[in-house]
Amino acid sequence: MALIDVVIPSYNYGRFLQESIKSVLGQTFQDFHLFIIDDGSTDNTREVVSRYQLLHSNIQYFFQENRGLPAARNTGLKLSTAPFIAFLDADDVWMPEKLEETLKPFYAQPNLGVVYTLIEMVDGSGNHIAQKRPCTPVRGDVFHQLLFNNSIAGSSSSVLVRRECIKKVGSFDESLPSCEDWDLWLRIARFFPFDYIAKPLVKIRIHEKNMHKDVERMVKGKLALMAKVFREDSWELAPLRSSAFATIYLTVSRQYMDIGLHANGFRFMSKALLLKPFMVLCHVSLWTSMFLFFNHTFLNMKRLLRKLVKTLLFGGHG
To answer: How many CA atoms lie within 13 A of 11 on its CB side?
Structure first.
């Protein structure tokens, strides 16, 4: 049995998968088993994996009908047996020392549940992208910080988890539209401390098929996650409910504003203000969203006035 099981879920990411597999095989820490879960791909995923299986006995391939990312990760969890589990998305890449560095804190802290790292964002070709809103990493008892923001690097690809945590809290929630990783970190954080490595050991690829660009799905996931948290722990967490939902509404507002859906953004901004007016007025996201909203409104009014002037002066011509 290996010390670490690595789970790579893949759905039609054959063009990226080779680089991801190579980054695992090139680790400075080599006591691992690699599970590649093909979630119903119709591309060359199987062929890519087969080439590596011929040379490496510690790679296992499993095909299943398409059921989504959390289901593919859960299949990997069911197959794995190692004391530690690492996840790597098929379009991401690890630095050579990723496993070695994330394993070290577990030796020093026997009750540690999760270790994660900072990340580097790259485009589809692997070129560095400046991160607009980097997460502030947190360590120790992180539940309350995680309740307001998923600070765990924004990606499961940076995480190493002790198997005991999964046994205690369960696996990824396949019923959530998105944010299933955030949900799992929250459940683990109720019982186990977290730690992080303060350097980027993962390259997160941003490209046209990233799920995070599906804003509607991400919004539904965030709202469903908050509803789940406060439904299951309503008595203990009740005092934090308004602040947590107000923070989520502000985040959602900013996401809508960023992609030009200003009416939706303003609606969620208003919901946040109604819940926690003083907290929201002190939050930088509010002013960013308001600037985007009023800038959009001003530009629309400017276009309308220009059209009106043309109509009055030229009868709609010229």
So the answer is: 15
For residue 145, the Cα-to-chain-centroid distance in whole angstroms is 16
Residue 193, class by beta-carbon neighbours within 10 Å (0-12 exposed, 13-18 middle, 19+ buried)? Answer: middle
pLDDT of residue 62: 98
Residue 213 has pLDDT above 70, yes or no: no
How far apart are alpha carbons 304 and 58 in whole angstroms? 64
- 251-255 long-range contacts (CB < 8 A, ≥24 apart) are 251/149, 251/222, 251/285, 252/219, 252/222, 252/223, 253/285, 253/286, 253/289, 254/285, 254/288, 254/289, 254/292, 255/215, 255/218, 255/219
Domain 4-208 has CATH 3.90.550.10: yes
Mean pLDDT of 94-106: 98
pLDDT at 298 over 80: no
pTM above 0.85, yes or no: no
